[in-house]
Amino acid sequence: MAKLLTRRSVLTGLGYGAIIGGTAGLIFSPSFHDMVLSTGERLAYRSHRLIGRDALAPEFTEADLSPDFRTNGNTMPKSDDYQRHMDTGFADWKLKIDGLVAAPMEFSLAALKAMPARTQITRHDCVEGWSAIGKWTGAPLAALLSQVALLPSARFLVLHCADDFGGDAYYESIDLVDAFHPQTLLAYTMNDQPLSVGHGAPLRLRVERQLGYKQAKYVMRIEATATLAGTGLGKGGYWEDQIGYDWYAGI
Amino acid sequence: MSTTEPIDAPMNATPAGGDVVERHRLSTRLWHWTNVVTLVIMLMSGLMIFNAHPRLYWGKYGANPDYAWLQIGATQANTGFLRIGSLTVETTGILGRWTDSNGQVRNRAFPWWATIPQGYNLASARRWHLTFAWVFAVGIGVYLIRSLWNRHLQRDLLPSAEEVKPSHVWTDIKHHAKLQFPTGEAARHYNVLQKFAYLLVLIILIPGMILTGFTMSPSLNASTPWLLDLFGGRQSARSLHFIFACGIVLFILVHLLMVVLAGPINEIRSMITGRYRLPKEKK
Ligand code: HEM
User: Fold this and answer.
1) CB B95 less than 6 A from any atom of ligand 1
2) pTM recorded for the entire structure
3) What is the pLDDT of residues A55-69, one digit of tens each?
4) Partner residue facing A125 (CB), from B19, B134, B234
5) How many Cβ contacts (< 8 angstroms) between chains A and B?
6) Is B72 a member of any domain?
7) CA angle, A55 as apex, B206 and A124 as ends, to 5°?
8) Which of the ends of chain A has fewer CB neighbours closer than 10 A, N or C?
9) Hey, are the CB atoms on A60 and B60 less than 8 Å from each other?
């Protein structure tokens, strides 16, 4: 008769018990979400930067364009200021770049359009799961950054937007790898038309290797910062702060 | 640890029904149970992520204005439905429209009892999913390498030339249909249908889940664009991700049924302690 309850099987059983008990304890602890469940984001951010720091997002052809590119988030900023800009065709609208820069500057829409432009047909992926392909023209963010000259202490760019949710203005942020990436644009044209209000007129960010909520619309101001701690609740973006979306949205 | 010799039969003797043999290596057992926990988390958090946009498409793009080949939703008349192509099934109470644990009626695709977390929360579901995805992917990666290394894959899982002959497979199908399970020495090895099922899961479905998952990442699309070509675009990859997951669920149902039919205590004990009592030959 074989001994089914050997010393080893008892030890193995205790081992499994410890693993299961430990896991259960973790799951019900309040810091579980913050600590353990942000592991995926941290590992994704590090590994993606390691294997494809400068890789270009796939670009498509005119034949691949979505027949109907849906809007999302806010589609009509409510502020009086924005309404006034809309009425005057954004003629005296200005993008401000400040924060940790040597030379803070303001750019009119005409000045941005006079800069060397880049056009790209790329896929926009919403965190919810849908994708739409659109054609974007805009000024590469890197060109603007070289004009304002980032200080060495700058680590992030925070984009402040004209739209708001219940009075809280939208904001997003990216790191400098994405900021200087050649496909990162401040786009003013979509599918060969001036950017519509629904899609972020007069200017929206295209940061092609991340999800839709990073593609800030109605961009008014770009602030170079050393940390994200001083922005909003400190997680780097409106949805990151409000409902806990990951700051790194490359997956 | 990895010996397959029977424990109390003398060396070299052929074990017979009733003997206890070492059946599963420690690496197999560790992977198996880690994978069970991980897979449950992946499936349930995945259903919550699906709930954020319960429509599937083929091709490079796909959003609300485009044709969805699969959709789960609720009608104006307050019924839940599942639509695949032009076939629509009413699913009120289970899919599309159901009552949550507080008695509230919800118009959502998958019901609260099938998702992590139970109330709608895409951010939290993504954190569960994208964190445990690492456990899932590293687990199967290490396991497959280990199984190649110790020849578990070649010796125990890969069917022999003899076993893949149609006549052998057919005999095995007949035995399964009659619920006749191998006994004695023959029960020391997986039968051929079992090998097919395990290989399907280990080589096709689980790696397929991981690769289609990678293909949905806009960042990995930049660094590994060939994945998009392999699966036919991001929305096709999303559809295939869902189809592979259905394949895994189907496998689990059959797998659990077989464990129960083959004698659940002996079977599950073998996957925990490694030791298995060979079923007795029929007198
Ligand atoms: C609670 C649920 C489960 C139970 C009770 C269970 C039980 C078992 C048992 C008893 C065996 C050994 C069969 C034998 O010795 O003939 C086995 C093997 C196996 N199971 Fe499961 N299983 C479960 C869930 C899963 C899941 C979710 C998967 C993956 C999708 C899975 C994949 C496998 C594989 C691939 C093997 C073969 C392992 C090898 O030899 O490499 N099982 N399972």
Assistant:
1) no
2) 0.92
3) 999 999 999 999 999
4) B234
5) 153
6) no
7) 70
8) N
9) yes
